[in-house]
Write a structure and sequence with these properties.
This protein has 446 residues and is of the alpha/beta class. A 6-stranded parallel sheet has the order 3-2-1-4-5-6, sandwiched between helices. Strands 14-13-12-15-16-17 form a 6-stranded parallel sheet, with helices on both faces. Strands 7-8-11-9-10 form a 5-stranded antiparallel sheet. Helices cover 30% and strands 25% of the residues. Among the domains are: 120 residues, Rossmann fold, CATH 3.40.50.720; 90 residues, Rossmann fold; 92 residues, Alpha-Beta Plaits, CATH 3.30.70. The radius of gyration is 23 Å and the shape is globular. Helix 1 crosses helix 14 and helix 6 packs across helix 14. Helix 5 links the parallel strand 5 and strand 6. The chain contains 15 helices and 22 strands. This is Trk system potassium uptake protein TrkA. Keywords: Ion transport, NAD, Potassium, Potassium transport, Transport. GO terms for molecular function: potassium ion transmembrane transporter activity. InterPro entries: K_uptake_TrkA (IPR006036), NAD(P)-bd_dom_sf (IPR036291), RCK_C (IPR006037), RCK_C_sf (IPR036721), RCK_N (IPR003148), Trk_Ktr_HKT_K-transport (IPR050721).
């Protein structure tokens, strides 16, 4: 696929690194020579120095031959104009990053479709919704619904009290028939394991489970930590994500939002009438303690600096806060943050990748979730008639070892996949896959 990316910032750079492993023909446009030089040093990608809204730059990128155009810069208006021009100049599909929820309303989306933009994505909105979901499932580190919630991916870290520790997969499932969940991966010491029956669970493992709706509660108990009801929440940082979380939850729970900028805090107080907005420097531990951090059920750090978020989250853990979430955009810090006990990491680059990676695949992919702290993705496919996956039982179709089928949705019924299950045309199939297997997996369902 020929892909043209407008914007070599954090999101654009991450997309280049991710997609360059998929044998695509990638060109990226940006007006910052230094950014482009850094990208070419790391990836096999063609770069063009220029304005992403310039006819000349777009034509130099051969936009007329482009299968997919992605405008992912920090400026919403620039992205919209760039994507519109690209589609008018011949790009087959054009998508744009935005930061305005108004544009996603059904009636307004039609306007952008008429302009030629096929898809709009708003990473901050998705990030806020992820945080809200996780606050409702506090014993998990990630929680993703597929097929309208008929299947869910539940991710949790094993505490010392977990009943799984020291047992194998076979031992856990031996006396149970018709299980409604399946362990699809274990992350241990920076390594991702596609588990087999003889693999043991160890303390500190991050476990990835596909579950049916009725078994989510049972699965979450395996973590060894209780699911708490969040009544008191503190948010550090009045970012777009922080504002949206407060606006969505302020009618249901008590929220304190801390921001160091007095002018910004004043504006936030006007917007969030049921949220207590505090104009203080959250980097100072004495301030956070004075504002009652130790009395919070949950703490979310959403400043623009990963270092500040990590340190604040560490303080919250030391003060006994049960659920701690931090936004960490520097990919190099994610493993560090997880190793020091931060429950959940929010990363807009991975959220963006999850939103648009499916457009780069030839198979009918309904959803992709790029996971934190794990070099793998979870994908939801719709099975095409006559595809290799329909030629027999799962254990007989030579499915890649670097991937595992977690569950199947057939009509209104959800099935947990075992070796004896047969996949049928038009099934929705949820698959956990390492990067090396994604292309092979797609071929099974296409």
């Amino acid at each position: 696929m020929k892909i043209l990316i407008a914007g070599a910032g954090e999101v654009g750079s991450h997309l280049v690194k991710m997609l360059s492993n998929e044998y695509h023909d990638i060109t990226i446009i940006d007006d910052d020579e230094k950014r482009l030089d850094e990208l070419t040093a790391l990836s096999d990608v063609l770069t063009i120095e220029g304005d992403v809204t310039s006819f000349d730059s777009l034509k130099r990128g051969e936009v007329q031959r482009c299968d997919l155009f992605m405008a992912v810069g920090p400026e919403e208006n620039t992205n919209i104009l760039s994507a519109t021009l690209a589609k008018q100049l011949g790009a087959k599909k054009a998508i744009a990053r935005i930061d305005n929820d108004e544009y996603l309303r059904p009636n307004n989306k039609e306007v952008f479709i008429n302009m030629g933009i096929d898809y709009l994505f708003y990473p901050e909105k998705v990030a806020a919704q992820e945080v809200i979901t996780l606050l409702g499932h506090s014993s998990t580190s990630e929680y993703v619904d597929f097929s309208g919630g008929k299947l869910s991916l539940v991710v949790f870290r094993l505490d010392a009290s977990s009943p799984l520790i020291g047992h194998t997969l076979i031992e856990i499932t031996r006396d149970r028939e018709n299980l409604e969940y399946r362990t699809v991966a274990i992350s241990r010491g920076g390594r991702t394991i596609i588990p087999r029956g003889e693999d043991f669970f160890e303390e500190g493992d991050t476990v990835y489970v596909i579950s049916g709706r009725s078994s989510v509660g049972e699965v979450m108990e395996f973590s060894g930590r209780p699911n708490i009801e969040v009544k008191n929440l503190m948010i550090l940082g009045g970012s777009r994500i922080g504002r949206r979380i407060a606006r969505e939850l302020q009618d249901e729970i008590n929220i304190k939002l801390v921001d160091y900028n007095p002018e910004k805090a004043y504006k936030l107080a006007e917007m969030l009438d049921k949220t207590l907005v505090i104009a203080e420097d959250g980097r100072k531990s004495e301030v956070m303690i004075e504002e009652g951090l130790d009395k919070m059920d949950a703490f979310v750090a959403l400043t623009g600096r990963a270092e500040t978020n990590i340190l604040a989250a560490m303080l919250a853990k030391r003060m006994g806060v049960k659920k701690v979430i931090a936004e960490i955009e520097n990919m190099n810090y994610i493993s560090l943050a997880e190793s020091i006990g931060i429950d959940t990491i929010i990363n807009k680059k991975l959220i963006t990748a999850s939103s648009i990676f499916r457009f780069t695949m030839n198979t009918d992919v309904q959803a992709i979730k790029c996971l934190n702290g794990c070099d793998a993705e979870v994908l939801e496919f719709i099975v095409k008639p006559g595809s290799p996956a329909t030629k027999g039982k799962i254990k007989h179709v030579n499915f890649p070892r670097e991937a595992i089928v977690g569950g199947i949705v057939r009509g209104d019924k959800a099935l947990i996949a075992t070796g004896n299950v047969e996949i049928r045309a038009y099934d929705r199939v949820v698959v956990f896959a390492l990067p090396s297997a994604i292309g092979k997996v797609g071929a099974f369902f296409g």
